[in-house]
Write a structure and sequence with these properties.
Elements: H1 3-7, H2 11-29, H3 35-45, H4 48-70, H5 76-99, H6 102-129, H7 132-136, H8 141-155, H9 159-168, H10 173-197, H11 203-226, H12 232-252
Helix pairs in contact: 2-3, 2-4, 2-11, 3-4, 3-6, 3-12, 4-10, 4-11, 5-8, 5-10, 6-9, 6-12, 8-9, 9-10
Organism: Streptomyces seoulensis
Keywords: Cell membrane, Membrane, Transmembrane, Transmembrane helix, Transport
Main location: membrane
Length: about 250
């Protein structure tokens, strides 16, 4: 990455990144699905590989707000069961990023976003037709962890996988938010040395992060205010449609 690659963007492109950064904060404290829109926007405006490195510190900032908000509701036994498998997935994702070019990363992010959207839709259908106890035993924490680790390393897109696991395990709203907040804060911080070693995080990317961080903060506070008020069904539909549009755009360009 270099300064011209990251900073030679138009005003409209920066506005899109700013909105995506606001959605990062909002997703961490209210609706995790909004984050997939941010992934698509960053990968569309910036080089695909660079976008994952720029987005990571912003995600960590959002995770920090989420932990401060929901820290009392985390379920640590669940987290400890997931971490070993997630670590394996992160290593696999790092090896993948080290071997492929920007074009393949761009297509991979698009495919992952479509796959995560499909998982989300499948999960909602399962929720409507099955009891939690029926769904809990269908996949091990290891399988979810590896897939979550790989997708979060390659595209910062582990949210739907972990959401599916936590819901299938029977977590209620606050327990879900608290457990996922600590999970992503720990995992995203652990990804920093891998991303830095791949050249995805450097001085230039951090300067862009500094400019975008001011939009994450109000998004996080907006999420805290809206979490008990938002029309979840309508918002989720908007997020899903926007994610699909963004993923298709990545695949076609």
């Amino acid at each position: 990455m270099n300064m011209m690659t990251l900073w030679h963007i138009s005003g409209w492109e920066f506005a899109a990144l700013a909105l995506a950064a606001l959605l990062v904060g909002f997703s961490k404290t209210a609706v995790s699905g909004a984050n997939t829109v941010s992934l698509a926007v960053f990968a569309a405006v910036l080089p695909a590989r660079a976008s994952t490195g720029v987005l990571l510190p912003l995600l960590i900032a959002g995770d920090t707000f989420a932990v401060l908000t929901y820290r009392r509701h985390a379920h640590w036994p669940t987290l400890w069961r997931l971490f070993p498998a997630v670590a394996a997935g992160v290593v696999a994702g790092t090896l993948f990023l080290a071997r492929v070019g920007d074009g393949i990363v761009r297509v991979s992010i698009g495919v992952i976003l479509l796959m995560m959207t499909g998982i989300t839709l499948w999960r909602r259908r399962q929720e409507a037709t099955e009891d939690v106890s029926t769904r809990t035993g269908r996949a091990t924490a290891g399988a979810y962890g590896v897939l979550g680790g790989f997708t979060t390393m390659v595209a910062n897109a582990g949210g739907p996988v972990m959401s599916m696991y936590l819901l299938s395990a029977g977590f209620r709203k606050m327990g879900f938010l608290g457990t996922s907040a600590f999970f992503f804060l720990i995992v995203n911080v652990a990804k920093i040395p891998f991303s830095a070693a791949l050249g995805l995080i450097d001085t230039d990317s951090l300067l862009l992060d500094a400019a975008l961080l001011v939009f994450v903060v109000p998004g996080a506070f907006l999420g805290r205010w809206a979490v008990h008020k938002i029309n979840q069904r309508l918002f989720d539909r908007i997020v899903i449609v926007a994610t699909v549009v963004g993923a298709v755009e990545l695949l076609l360009t």
